[in-house]
């Protein structure tokens, strides 16, 4: 049986489809040669797939001769979504190596959510989120991660708390952050600050406060400097184009905590708490 694929444009976003057959393309899946031209501008050896539930999974991209494949991570995507029984998949390219994957069962109906057997613990790219003034007070004796917030304040004082105490105080600030503005909190993962450079936004936050369309948002750091970043919204919600520049300019690393505070329409102030344990 030959592998079936085809590329076309749909609503200005290029797409291709695949029929998924167990043992044929559940270990790796081919990207149609005609489709590869759409990836040249953004090409990376990593890509993000968003499945029917809106959860993301990272896959590796590799070349074999003139052909391009999704491999490492693809098998897990198939397992998580119980693929391999002649499902019809549409891969829509949203830019920045992000694909939205629609799944149609053999009966022709679109699969709108994950199989019931899938659990939340299997989320591939976890996002720590905190919404709408959720406040966790610091408690004496509580174990806190050792983090400190980047600050513009310079100079010295005659009385300084110890380094460990200062770090605990700053960790407490990150833990108990509150604001009159809507906000969410995210732990930086590899997919956020290396290789693919994408920052997912919690679905409930995006649906409540952000437009349901692709648009530009402004990110501000503690110095008041700003970056224009592309926000995409569909089954997934994330910051993509421009996020990489924000990561580099603010030296974000794996383990850092960022609090995204929506201070105006399409404008977020980002509070950064570096991971000082590294």
Automatic annotation (TrEMBL):
Gene3D superfamilies: DNA-binding pseudobarrel domain. It comes from the Eukaryota. It comes from Quillaja saponaria. One of its GO terms (cellular component) is nucleus. The keyword Nucleus applies. It is found in: Nucleus. Keywords: DNA-binding, Nucleus, Transcription, Transcription regulation. One of its GO terms (molecular function) is DNA binding. Residues 136-167 are annotated as: Disordered. Residues 14-107, 184-276 form the TF-B3 domain. This is B3 domain-containing protein. Pfam families: B3 (PF02362).
């Amino acid at each position: 049986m030959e592998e079936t694929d085809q590329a076309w444009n749909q609503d200005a976003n290029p797409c291709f489809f695949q029929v998924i057959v167990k043992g044929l393309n559940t270990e790796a899946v081919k990207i149609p040669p005609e489709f590869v031209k759409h990836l040249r501008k953004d090409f990376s050896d990593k890509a993000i797939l968003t499945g029917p539930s809106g959860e993301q999974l990272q896959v590796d991209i590799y070349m074999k001769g003139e052909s391009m494949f999704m491999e490492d991570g693809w098998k897990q995507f198939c397992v998580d979504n119980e693929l391999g029984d002649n499902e019809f998949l549409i891969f829509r390219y949203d830019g920045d190596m992000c694909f939205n994957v629609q799944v149609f069962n053999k009966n022709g109906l679109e699969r709108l959510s994950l199989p019931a057997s899938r659990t939340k613990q299997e989320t591939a790219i976890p996002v720590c989120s905190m919404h709408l003034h959720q406040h966790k007070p610091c408690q004496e004796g509580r174990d806190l991660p050792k983090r400190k917030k980047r600050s513009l304040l310079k100079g010295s004082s005659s009385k300084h708390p110890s380094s460990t105490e200062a770090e605990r105080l700053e960790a407490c600030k990150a833990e108990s952050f509150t604001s009159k503005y809507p906000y969410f909190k995210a732990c930086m993962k590899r997919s956020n600050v290396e290789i693919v450079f994408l920052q997912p936004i919690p679905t409930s936050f995006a649906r409540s406060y952000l437009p349901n369309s692709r648009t530009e948002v402004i990110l501000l750091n503690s110095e008041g400097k700003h970056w224009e970043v592309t926000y995409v919204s569909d089954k997934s919600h994330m910051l993509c184009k421009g996020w990489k520049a924000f990561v580099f300019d603010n030296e974000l690393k794996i383990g850092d905590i960022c609090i995204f505070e929506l201070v105006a329409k399409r404008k977020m102030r980002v509070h950064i708490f570096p991971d000082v344990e590294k």
